[in-house]
Amino acid sequence: MTKEKTPSAPPSEEKPIGFNLSEFNSTTILTEKQKLEDEEDYNPFVHRVVEKPNSTGGALAHLLKSSLGTGILAMPMAFKNAGLLFGGIGTIVVGILCTYCVHILVKTSHDVCKKGRVPSLGFAETVEKVFALGPQPIQKFANASKLFVDYALMATYYSAACVYIVFIATSFAKVINFELELDWDVRIYIALIFIPVLIMGQIRILKYLVPFSAIANLFIIVTFAVTLYYMFNVELEFHDKPLFSSFGQLPLFFSTVIFAMEGIGVVMPVENSMKKPQHFLGCPGVLNTAMITVIVLYAVMGFFGYVRFGDIVEGSITLNLPQTEPLAQTAQILIALAILFTFGLQFYVPMDILWRKLEHRIPKEKHNISQIAIRTGIILICSAVAAAVPNLEPFIGLVGALFFSTLGLLVPAVVETIFKWPDNLGPLKLILVKNIIVGIFAIFALVSGSIVSISEIVEIYRGEEH
């Protein structure tokens, strides 16, 4: 964790009653002026020391990879819950909103670094420093705010890990049940993949995950190509697809798109690791380039995927590919393996946060066995949760509503408001008004999306009972 470096004040010297006023003017006032100028001129980018910095292109690749995963395969399902016209417009609006919230978070982090004279800050550290530098009544919540973001990030990634497990198991079940003429429940496959998932989750060093990520990227590209082939290999019919679905389904649409697009947990690490972090924001900038690409790809996949498969589209469009054709089966197996190989990277982020909190409480000689036990226990819990809710659609909606709407939308709006309070909120306090609107939308997505997703999960259980 980066500690705030507060510049030490020069020792005050006690002046005799008859001290020289001209000396005070020329020395003391000059010192204060120089100190103020130093604070204003402090450039955190110059003071950053990164052992192996990412190039601008590398940062763009990391940001794209964090957004282009299982989320894009869920976009046709999102369009089913919105309709063609509203889905297209809504995807663009949510994409712009997510991009904007990332922008204000990173910009606020830069300003806090400059004010606190530190080279870089992570997500949770930025929130902590904003509260610490904010109005007097909320300064006491600085540590609590950092803990909230840390635990929310862990909950987000562990929940996403549950979605990954469901996704892997469902993809394998679809192919194996058809080929071997079995009728095994997806929960059996969740149990069967526990060991390979556990092995991936035990990898603690990032460089050992690189080969798996490279293979996963190749598998994802092949799967996308096959999916696009099946999307456009027949004449598409638009007339039977509604332009707008219903108001009752919109919460699922918004929470699914937020889940798909949000990569808030990787934004600050990527920005902090850049050789030229000034290229992250701005026009075109890494952030804008990545998000424009993501928005276009998500809108295209969602629109044409829904047109192709209609209301039978599943939580991942790959599950709609024809089961009788080897090419489609290959794509389903490849995407399952790709997500399995990506699990280690997904699991690395929350475990890194958790281990930093536990490491000092455990004797050093027991670090290895403790890590193994903790990782095994958490993956066991994730598998149990996945088995309890083995349906992708409401699960994705619930994770998007609960966690990504909070961290990706609400927290950046709150952080910017506190940092600029009360004198830098713009004319007519437009920044405050804008952030209130963002906060209302985030709370709407959180509450309504959670209610609808939980209701669907309850209905699934009722259907199983009957």
List keywords for this structure.
single chain; mainly alpha; 72% helix; 18 helices; disordered N terminus; 466 residues
Alpha carbon gyration radius: 25 Å
- Broad shape: globular
Quote the beta fraction.
under 5%
Q: Note the total helix count.
A: 18
Runs in which pLDDT lies below 50 for 5 or more consecutive residues are 1-30
Order of helices and strands: HHHHHHHHHHHHHHHHHH
Task: Quote the distance from N terminus to C terminus.
Answer: 52 Å
Number of strands: 0
Helix content: over 70%
* Secondary-structure content class: mainly alpha
How would a crystallographer describe the biggest sheet?
none
Chain-averaged pLDDT: 82
Can I get a quick summary?
With 466 residues, the chain is mainly α.
Tell me about this structure.
The chain is mainly alpha-helical and 466 residues long. It contains 18 helices and no strands. α8 (142-179) packs antiparallel against α15 (326-358) and α12 packs across α17. The protein starts with 20 loop residues before the first helix and ends with a helix. The model is unreliable at 1-30 (pLDDT under 50).
